[in-house]
């Protein structure tokens, strides 16, 4: 059942992505008004799929690569809907919509039937660790989307083209401010995700830190975002450079997630728990 729900969800996300992109490509299109509603429909269906899978496996559904992709997409879509409700930045949806569609489609293609969850993962700290870590990643995904729109907006302003489209995009100052807010929310979530992961490891293996590849990649990502926030706060880093570094940071984050799940790396996360 959850597989069917996930397939319908991917279709809804594709429709939402097209509706978000249309007014950016062709100014004057009114589809941006209904795009959030279509995305919300997809998110509702996705929530049902996640809940169904959670009940089936008995824990938060991130015990394989497909589940991790689905959970990532679900939290990203939900985070954007909260952001959209508060700020009405539909242009950011032109990046978020395709992103959640690709993640969900990949989850559909890598879907596996429910298997018995290892006893090691049947621990109350797992949902805490996974939810915090993935939610931080989702907020960083929003920062990535905002940064992409920032660079597009800046390029159009410098080229003095597409004046009608520029009027439909948020101001550079608004986008830069939103980028910082996303980073400021995502970083403590990532930090708490790493700490709770250490507590989870203490309960299962007796060691807070094992220096396995996933932990090292998480530390690298944490240091990158810590440096980015530090430079924004103390060195006045903002604008194009901040947007470019945010995009690079998200690229490192995605590469970390894919490498742990697709490469035969040793450790608790390798090829399994995609958190």
Give helix % range: over 70%
Shape: globular
Number of helices: 9
Mean pLDDT over the residues: 84
Beta-strand residue percentage? under 5%
Strand/helix succession = HHHHHHHHH
Distance between the termini: 24 Å
State the secondary-structure class.
Answer: mainly alpha
Poorly predicted runs: 270-275
How many domains make up the 3D coordinates? Answer: 2
Biggest sheet, open or closed, and with what strands and sense? none
Q: What does the radius of gyration come to?
A: 19 Å
> In oligomeric terms, what are we looking at?
single chain
Strand count: 0
Structure commentary:
The model is unreliable at 270-275 (pLDDT under 50). It contains nine helices and no strands. The protein is globular. Helix 1 runs antiparallel to helix 2 (35-57), helix 5 (125-159) packs antiparallel against helix 7 and helix 7 (172-205) runs antiparallel to helix 8 (213-234). With 275 residues, it is an all-alpha fold. The chain starts with a helix and ends in a 13-residue tail after the last helix.
List the helices and strands and how they pair.
Elements lengths: L1 H24 L9 H23 L7 H23 L5 H17 L15 H35 L3 H6 L3 H34 L7 H22 L4 H24 L13
Give a concise summary.
This protein is an all-alpha fold and 275 residues long. Helices cover 76% and strands 0% of the residues.
